[in-house]
From TrEMBL:
This is Uncharacterized protein. It comes from the Bacteria.
Length: 127
């Protein structure tokens, strides 16, 4: 399960009355490692970009990061909350780009097929 949703939040969601702040807080509580990584890169991005490239300490943390960044709604909520564009590679390499940097050469390089191939290593092949 991606998120630990308490009964009150689930009931309000079924009625269509959950706002972005409540959703993002649910993500923060449910996926604390992913929250830590994203909040760190977002804070360091400033007007440009910041990266995180440290493998997670365990498979549980790796799973949190994968769930957070593979879900369009979670990723979008994090991007709106932090005001950045997130980019993701290799089960742990995360970058936060300031909105003005999304059209930059650095962004295009980070999300390119070449960068993805260059960042593969045998130990990450099965992550």
């Amino acid at each position: 399960m991606s998120l630990a949703v308490h009964a009150d939040l689930l009931a309000r969601a079924q009625e269509g009355v959950v706002d972005d702040a409540e959703f993002v807080d649910c993500v923060r509580v449910s996926l604390p490692y992913a929250w830590e990584v994203v909040s760190d890169v977002a804070a360091r991005a400033g007007a440009d970009v910041a990266e995180h490239a440290v493998p997670p300490p365990s498979e549980a943390e790796r799973g949190q990061l994968l769930r957070a960044l593979a879900s369009d709604s979670i990723r979008g909520g994090l991007e709106r909350h932090f005001g950045v564009k997130l980019a993701f590679q290799n089960c742990h390499r995360v970058a936060a780009f300031a909105p003005a940097a999304v059209d930059s050469a650095r962004y295009r390089e980070f999300v390119s097929p070449l960068a993805q191939i260059r960042n593969q290593t045998p130990e990450l092949r099965d992550c």
